[in-house]
User: Which sequence fits this backbone?
């Protein structure tokens, strides 16, 4: 009745490129990380020094599982400008978005659970879900996003643990969902009572003001969406910083999963990024990136 993604995904030949047979000069497009020349080292160094001068040794203490509270406040303000309403209690700081995806797998998936994903999808998410014994079912996409008719037919046959999508600049296709398609997918989640995982790793990096980059989470009125956000592709990947906006019904299980994973994300990193956000340097950095990348 449904096509399990597992066998096809686990084929070692999928996505394999034999570099020995190719030229020695190539551009690696797999990592999709910004060049280090664009890293805002000087401004972030000021933020780090400010934290060290202010907090001393306390800058290296454990934080609560959900993360440094002032940073969660800053993030609420930041995503509030994106139309996403949240309070600090809804925010969970993660050691990169990949950890957020892994926490979803740990907190939500039992062996044999069905998860619907886009075809194609982000390799790291699929691998994490499979590691917990999920059965992945891939739903075809068109130029507007995941096909809602096929999704609905599959949901009628087998209720999913959740549906994983990337509405903005989907990886690896770079498709951004149309507004109509966003509304259709969310309506299905409400009608059939399932969770949506919205992975937003690059939503701010838009060069076209006409693109409907409204986040699904900003449209969420029924606590249906787990929003996962990374700063890696827009800031400096090595700091490993991301966050999640969690529906209230799953927050406790995610806190436990976070504690068992790494107790808490680096306190110094969290505190420094809080200073960086509050200073306005983050918005300046984003504007510079958009100007550079749009040339």
Assistant:
């Amino acid at each position: 009745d449904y096509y399990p993604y597992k066998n096809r995904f686990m084929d070692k030949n999928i996505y394999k490129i034999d570099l020995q047979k190719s030229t020695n000069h190539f551009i690696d497009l797999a990592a999709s990380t910004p060049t280090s020349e664009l890293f805002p080292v000087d401004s972030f160094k000021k933020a780090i020094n400010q934290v060290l001068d202010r907090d001393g040794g306390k800058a290296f203490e454990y934080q609560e599982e959900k993360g440094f509270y002032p940073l969660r406040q800053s993030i609420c303000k930041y995503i509030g400008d994106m139309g996403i309403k949240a309070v600090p209690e809804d925010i969970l700081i993660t050691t990169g978005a990949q950890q957020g995806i892994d926490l979803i797998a740990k907190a939500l998936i039992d062996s044999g659970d069905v998860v619907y994903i886009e075809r194609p999808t982000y390799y790291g998410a699929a691998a994490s879900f499979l590691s917990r014994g999920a059965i992945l079912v891939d739903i075809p996409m068109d130029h507007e996003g995941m096909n809602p008719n096929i999704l609905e037919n599959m949901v009628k046959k087998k209720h999913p643990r959740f549906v994983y999508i990337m509405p903005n600049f989907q990886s690896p296709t770079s498709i951004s969902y149309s507004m109509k398609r966003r509304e259709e997918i969310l309506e299905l989640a409400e009608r059939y009572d399932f969770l949506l995982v919205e992975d937003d790793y690059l939503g701010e990096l838009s060069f076209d003001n006409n693109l409907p980059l409204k986040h699904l989470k900003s449209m969420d009125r029924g606590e249906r969406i787990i929003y996962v956000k990374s700063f890696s592709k827009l800031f400096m990947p090595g700091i490993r910083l991301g966050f999640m906006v969690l529906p209230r019904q799953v927050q406790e299980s995610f806190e436990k999963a976070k504690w068992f994973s790494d107790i808490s994300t680096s306190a110094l990193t969290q505190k420094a990024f809080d200073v960086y956000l509050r200073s306005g340097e983050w918005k300046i950095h984003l504007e510079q990136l958009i100007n550079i990348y749009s040339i």
In short: The chain is about 40% helix and 15% strand. The longest strand covers residues 135-142. The first helix runs from residue 6 to 10.
